[in-house]
Design goal:
Order of helices and strands: HHEEEEHEHHEHEHHEHEH
Strand content: 15-25%
Number of strands: 9
Largest sheet: 9 strands, mixed
Strand order of the largest sheet: 1-2-3-5-4-6-7-8-9
Keywords: Hydrolase, Serine esterase, Signal
Protein name: Acetylxylan esterase
Number of helices: 10
InterPro entries: AB_hydrolase_fold, GCE-like_dom
CATH class: Alpha Beta
Radius of gyration: 22 Å
CATH superfamily: Alpha/Beta hydrolase fold, catalytic domain
Oligomer: single chain
Number of domains: 1
GO molecular function, one term: carboxylic ester hydrolase activity
CATH topology: Rossmann fold
Pfam families: GCE_fung
Length: about 450
């Protein structure tokens, strides 16, 4: 009995120590993040406090707007008007004039510029095993991408990438790359979010892909760049900067994760079992933002599946609905973007931002992109499903100019209705913060472009 009591005491004591250690680590990250945030504001010469963003808690006194009747009028920049005011009327003008202009504007003011001399990545297979996705045999390989750190050995970056291909594949097949997490080679796969299913009979995403004889990959963003401001002096950003603070125009975490996806694409091009012309990119929430940034800046990805990306992703920033610029440019989220973006929550306003989300979607043109969102009854209104739909609407003229189809309506569709007739697709499913209930719809749409 005494031993049992002692065991219970030791177990409780261990849990308490772990909780205190975890809390201490969080406090340390928050303190370092705040120091980095204030350093960036100092570099920018911003001496005033940022405007506070609204709360995601609908019961809070400063709750984010979720009422369409309270959306104030706004004017969007025209993606088909060049910086000199001239209209873009031809495909060549888009590709040679306007697209480079938009890329630069997004780099200057929002996502940041890539360093000119990025280090090489050397990929190596670490493990390989046979497994299954539902009833389908799969061969999975775990790769490590070691980033050359010879210029600053104090920081190591090792990119984690898992690839699953139908067992016995003998020809190059399509593959979807997801931003996510892996538990290889030990332990069971992570439990899917409960909102993942339409019903208990909906197969998981891997099984759906393998059933079509397509492959999957999971790229781990945290192995590229930490998801906090404290990590900006480490990861790939810190490695290139030799452990020093960023400059205002340098890349943030979203662009760094997208760079990591580009490094994975470099590997895919060397694997004879993967068709590099049929590679998709998928992600949800902040990883949905990263997936859209990847599609916009890296034209090698042929299809996008952008899940609940919200503000900073596919949702119009000028719409005062859900998450706002003030949230994105706060000390909790500024690390996703370049330092210059902080200006738009302090000394400037969102109306002065020279770009908006519809132009980020337009940078994907003419490649097909599917915008996914969950039910506001489950997911909430923070990500602004209608704002993402409208970004697709206002990107559609660019697709039309390039001989493709955008969205075929300006009216926000009922939940569950799939707008999949064009190269911009949209569907609001009945689940939560996940692409899960849209996978079968996305696959049917993607099959039009990848089937051979």
């Amino acid at each position: 009995m005494k031993l049992k009591v002692l065991f219970v005491f030791l177990f409780a004591f261990t849990l308490c120590v772990k909780a205190q250690t975890s809390s201490s680590a969080r406090d340390s990250i928050a303190a370092i993040t705040q120091k980095d945030f204030l350093n960036m504001k100092q570099q920018l010469g911003i001496t005033i406090d940022n405007r506070p963003g609204p709360s995601g808690d609908p019961t809070a006194s400063n709750a984010a707007n979720s009422d369409e009747d309270k959306v104030v009028p706004y004017t969007l920049p025209d993606p088909l008007i060049a910086n000199n005011g001239k209209a873009i009327t031809g495909q060549g003008d888009w590709q040679n004039v306007r697209r480079p202009q938009l890329v630069k504007l997004f780099e200057d003011e929002m996502y940041g510029h890539l360093p000119k001399d990025l280090p090489n990545v050397e990929w190596a297979v670490k493990h390989e095993k046979d497994t299954t996705a539902g009833p389908y045999p799969v061969t999975e390989i775990l790769l490590k991408g070691t980033v050359d750190n010879s210029r600053y050995p104090q920081i190591q970056v090792e990119i984690e990438l898992l690839i699953g291909l139908p067992k016995g594949t003998s020809e190059a097949i399509p593959l979807v790359t997801r931003f996510g997490s892996i538990t290889w080679p030990f332990g069971p796969p992570p439990e899917e979010p409960k909102s993942y299913f339409i019903s208990a009979y909906e197969p998981l995403w891997k099984q759906q892909l393998i059933s079509k004889k397509w492959g999957y990959a999971i790229l781990v963003p945290s192995s590229i760049q930490d998801d906090n401001g404290a990590g900006l002096t480490s990861g790939i950003i810190g490695l290139v900067n030799k452990g020093q603070y960023r400059k205002p125009g340098q890349w943030g975490a979203l662009r760094a994760w997208a760079w990591g996806a580009g490094q994975a694409m470099d590997y895919f091009s060397t694997n004879p079992l993967i068709d590099e012309s049929r590679i998709g990119i998928e992600g949800t929430s902040r990883y949905g933002k990263a997936a859209l940034v990847t599609m916009a800046f890296d034209e090698r990805f042929s299809l996008g599946f952008i899940g609940s990306s919200g503000a900073g992703g596919a949702s119009l920033l000028r719409r005062n609905f859900g998450e706002m610029v003030e949230n994105l440019a706060s000390s909790g989220e500024y690390h996703w973007f370049c330092g210059n973006f902080i200006k738009y929550a302090s000394v400037l306003t969102v109306e002065e931002l020279p770009v908006d989300a519809h132009e980020l979607v337009a940078l994907c043109a003419p490649r097909p992109v599917f915008i996914s969102v969950g039910s506001p009854l489950i997911e909430g209104n923070w990500v602004d499903g209608k704002g993402m739909f409208l970004a697709g609407v206002h990107a559609s003229p660019v697709y039309k100019l390039l001989g493709k189809k955008g969205l075929n309506t300006n009216d926000f569709p009922p939940m569950g209705e799939a707008l999949t007739s064009g190269e911009i697709a949209f569907r609001q499913h009945a689940g939560g913060h996940s692409t899960g209930p849209n996978w079968s719809t996305w696959l049917a749409w993607a099959d039009r472009y990848w089937s051979r």
